[in-house]
Design goal:
elongated; single chain; 3 domains
């Protein structure tokens, strides 16, 4: 050993190597049947693990980087994971895109990230527009009920403790893409209080007319707000989808409507996004966007039994 130390003093590289050998002997890397254990008590890895870190005092620190640094990784392997400093969360590469390791609850989500509605495990992306945090998808919670065609105002849903929705043409495949169409009373969970949570997840609520106006004004007014909110292209809108830029990130799509007679209409041509605000107790105020216009209409209807779309929001 004395001779080895003399040689190490003459060679700084060897001295560094000797230092690391000592460190490794302290950490105790244990190999057993092609397994690796990092511990401080010479214990082997669990039989089911190729690699195990054991500690009751310290954690395991993964690579930490910004989104730009993450995106600069060339050909990331499927399963590669890291901590995103911009989003403050773990992410992994699923072979196609980077996804969050787990979703925060609806009340904990940082606006701009996805969250999961644990009532039915559906995932909702979010977007910050001004001071308002909006869902980027229409609500789709609930059990589908068939819409029956009649000649008068009626509803096929009831206050039975179960969230119920319509799907365009009574086809659940439409709900999976466009979201549910909701009777106003069902959506409000039989409350008439503006800004109520209704069927929205915890921490979110049905926007009021005033909150819709804040959004509209922020986007430059009714004449242009619809175009700034509509998804571009013709996947969920029919031509010509006038003015659609989606520069707000709201990503409105042509969901259509369920009329009070029980019939459906307007898929890919229009969307009616309701509010929680009444007008003279008989009318409900909504916002309408159409494929043929860049405008966002403010209107009201006196038939709460129609089926319309819902975007939940919160004040950030």
């Amino acid at each position: 050993m004395r001779q080895l130390l003399l040689k190490l003093k003459r060679n700084s590289g060897m001295l560094l190597a000797f230092f690391w050998i000592c460190q490794f002997s302290i950490v105790n890397f244990q190999f057993a049947r092609a397994q690796l254990s990092v511990s401080n008590n010479n214990s082997a890895a669990h039989p089911s693990a190729m690699f195990e870190v054991k500690s009751t005092e310290k954690g395991l620190l993964p690579p930490r980087m910004t989104t730009a640094q993450r995106d600069a990784i060339v050909n990331p392997a499927e399963g590669l994971y890291l901590f995103n400093l911009d989003k403050n969360m773990m992410e992994f590469f699923n072979g196609t895109e980077w996804r969050q390791f787990s979703y925060p609850s609806s009340s904990e989500v940082l606006c701009g990230n996805d969250f999961i509605d644990f009532r039915d495990n559906q995932v909702y992306p979010t977007i910050l527009i001004g001071t308002q945090c909006w869902m980027k998808k229409n609500m789709n919670i609930g059990v589908m009920v068939n819409s029956t065609v009649t000649g008068s105002s009626h509803s096929d849903v009831s206050n039975n403790g179960v969230i119920e929705k319509y799907c365009f043409n009574n086809d659940p495949a439409y709900c999976a893409i466009y979201g549910g169409l909701y009777d106003w009373n069902e959506m409000m969970q039989y409350s008439t209080t503006a800004g109520v949570q209704g069927i929205c997840p915890s921490g979110w609520h049905i926007p009021t007319d005033a909150e819709w106006t804040i959004l509209t004004d922020y986007l430059g007014g009714e004449d242009v707000a619809g175009g700034k909110m509509k998804e571009t292209g013709l996947t969920h809108w029919t031509a010509p989808n006038i003015g659609a830029t989606n520069e707000s990130g709201f990503t409105a799509i042509g969901t259509g409507i369920r009329y009070y007679t029980g019939t459906f209409d307007g898929i890919k041509n229009s969307t009616y996004l309701t509010s929680s605000s009444e007008q003279l107790t008989l009318y409900v105020i909504y916002r309408g966007a159409y494929g043929g216009y860049a405008k966002l209409w403010r209107g009201s209807y006196n038939l709460k039994t129609e089926g319309e779309s819902l975007r939940c929001m919160r004040t950030n």
